[in-house]
Write a structure and sequence with these properties.
The protein is an alpha/beta fold and about 270 residues long. It is built from ten helices and nine strands. It has a single domain, classed as P-loop containing nucleotide triphosphate hydrolases (Rossmann fold, 3-Layer(aba) Sandwich).
């Protein structure tokens, strides 16, 4: 059985619209117009344990909605989603014990306490045995070069330092599946290269499945052996990244961002 299996997942949102024109503010107090926005229109795909999968597409394509459904945060309108044999939103407690999530613009670290204290709180949340926690936290601290940061509050760290700590926090409980949503946003070149190298090694050593959503195509090119393109709530491409470049590149050696821009234009994204 596939580690991840989605079948015909659909999700819509109800959006409130404010009236326009003269007296719009006053009208808005009494009239609430709504419209239905389709985020996902029947997404289906599967992934095996240990895969490194890139999920790309323009803003509003449905990437984050897909990740939130797979992580159990959202419930779809219809369709089925099985992660390691579980339906995330119905078996959430058991499900979250097997996943790690890193959102580039959000934090799971407590802002005003040292990183080591945040790790201890996560140990209690995930009920990690003390011996295993000590081994794992030291292993991650060494691999991500954060040993000197553990006594520092999260608010005093640079973005690159905090992201390395976020990755460590997400992997403390040895998840089988790791969701990464824009993990390198705002990082400098050195930090990006170090983070990519770590993720490849972690995948190789532990077999963790990694699903990466990003607008940085260099991340996808460096990390992912498979890429899926989502647009208008549909899965538009699923295959090797090289195949995507061959299909949409107009000349040899074209910049990868130009290739993706050409793809978005051709697919009217």
């Amino acid at each position: 059985m596939a580690h991840i299996e989605l079948q015909e997942i659909r999700k819509t949102y109800k959006v409130h619209e404010r009236p326009t024109g003269k007296w719009s503010v006053l009208k808005g107090a009494f009239i609430r117009n709504t419209k239905i926005v389709q985020a996902l229109g029947g997404i289906s795909f599967s992934a095996n344990q240990g895969e490194l999968v890139g999920l790309i597409g323009p803003n509003g394509a449905g990437k984050s909605t897909t990740v939130k459904i797979m992580s159990g945060i959202l419930t779809p309108d219809s369709g089925t989603c099985l992660i390691h044999g579980r339906m995330p939103w119905k078996e959430r407690k058991a499900h979250v014990a097997d996943i790690g999530v890193v959102f580039g613009q959000r934090t799971q670290l407590w802002w005003d306490v040292p990183i080591s204290d945040s790790f201890q709180l996560l140990r209690d949340i995930y009920d990690i045995p003390k011996g295993d926690f000590q081994v794992r936290s030291q292993e991650l601290a060494l691999a991500l070069d954060i040993e000197g940061l553990l006594s520092t509050p999260a608010r005093q760290l640079s973005l690159g330092q905090r992201m390395r700590c976020e990755i460590a926090a997400a992997l403390l409980h040895r998840p089988k599946l790791l969701f990464l949503d824009e993990p390198t946003i705002g990082l400098d070149a050195v930090s990006k290269l170090a983070l990519r190298a770590f993720l490849k090694e972690e995948n190789k050593q532990t077999g963790v499945t990694v699903l990466l959503t990003t607008h940085d195509m260099d991340d996808v090119d460096a990390l992912c052996n498979r890429v899926m393109v989502i647009g208008h709530g549909q899965l538009l491409y699923d295959g090797a990244f090289d195949g995507l470049k061959e299909q949409y590149a107009t000349y040899q050696g074209q910049d990868i961002d130009e290739v993706i821009a050409a793809m978005y234009k051709e697919l009217a994204l």
